Amino acid sequence: MKSLVAYYSRTNITKKLAEDIAKNAGADIEEIKPKNDYDGKLGYVRAGKDAISEKIIDLQDLKYDPADYDMVYIGTPVWVSKAANPIISYMKINEGKLNNVKFFTTAGSSGFESTFEQMEKYSSKPVKKIGLTTKEVKKGEYSLEGFTD
Ligand SMILES: Cc1cc2nc3c(=O)[nH]c(=O)nc-3n(C[C@H](O)[C@H](O)[C@H](O)COP(=O)(O)O)c2cc1C
Fold first, then answer.
1. Is 114 in the pocket of ligand 1 (CB under 6 A)?
2. Residue 60 CB less than 6 A away from ligand 1
3. HSE of 29, CA atoms in CB hemisphere, 13 A
4. Which tens digit of pLDDT belongs to each residue from 20-78?
């Protein structure tokens, strides 16, 4: 099975998980980057605002076409109980191509379910979902057994 891991990460937590998933699944990996990044304190404030309004934003060029894959893993941090705008924008751009998906999210503590629900508006129902706290990812306190197979 040909798999792609597509993720966004602002502070490298979701990135760590994405790289682990890609390694386990033998998948290609696409880091989604917004044209206007969310770095720093100002970026943090704009991230919160953009997440609340579910704003679709411009992304940097993508390397891979999800239509070429049997399975697409989509990963995002939780922003105010929603998916990060780069991911929502990626899913919107690729609407109709995301027919076999698994979701993964990271959050400080909460907002996993509402994030998954929002993502489902832009793709088929995910085959599997995993939500981990920042701490669990940092410490490696998780197992991908049953998620990547
Ligand atoms: C704008 C913004 C909003 C956030 N909202 C939430 C939230 O609603 N619930 C939560 O548990 N964590 C929230 N967080 C924390 C992140 O989800 C968490 O730190 C995540 O692991 C960061 O992943 P990343 O390093 O891949 O960006 C928020 C972070 C940002 C920047």
1. no
2. no
3. 18
4. 999 999 999 999 999 999 999 999 999 999 999 999 999 999 999 999 999 999 999 99
